[in-house]
User: What shape does this take?
Amino acid sequence: MAFEAIQTALRVVYPPRCTLCGGLVDSEFGLCGPCWRDTPVVSGLVCDLCGCPLPGEEAVGDARCDDCLRVARPWQKGRAALIYKDNARKLVLALKHGDRHDVVPLAATWMKRAAGPLLVPNCLFVPVPLHWTRLLKRRFNQSALLAQAVTKEVNAAWCPDVLERVKRTPSLDGMGHGGAVRDAGCGHRRAAGAAREDTGARGDSGR
Assistant: This one.
């Protein structure tokens, strides 16, 4: 009872705000109506490799976009929570370069929904690492924050140090899918007690 009273008082003093514009909303870590309208959340039929939206409602077998039909991908399946434009781009940049960690719970909810069809029992989430020089500058790895938040949503395991970035690579800004894949620069290493053969679920690129 006392805890609920404290929570109510805090909501009066610090009411929930839209994660993007700061307007009043009903719950924490949400978007107001106008901001939600302009946020390109991926839904419906998607490419089974990159997660981009496709026309239609159902697919016979695994659906593929034109890019994934032309270019072989070094992964088996993939999903995307948002299209990188408009408010989605603002949210990504706010987290990545603006220290807006309050974006993480909202993004984790969307990522949980998008990744749902790919999750299997005992899967292990492995965030893409930052090179140590970039981590020193940024002070956190947004991929690790997202992986940790999603694992809490789906009750799965995660290991933040399975991979090590052994090469400092260029920023992904302006780089297409092909360039990002070719320039990943990650080397594998075993983490004590975490070497497993589970299906891996990866967060966004750590650069």
The helical segments are 2-13, 33-37, 66-70, 86-98, 103-115, 132-138, 142-154, 177-182. The CA atoms of residues 39 and 199 lie 30 Å apart. Confidence is low (pLDDT under 50) at residues 190-202.
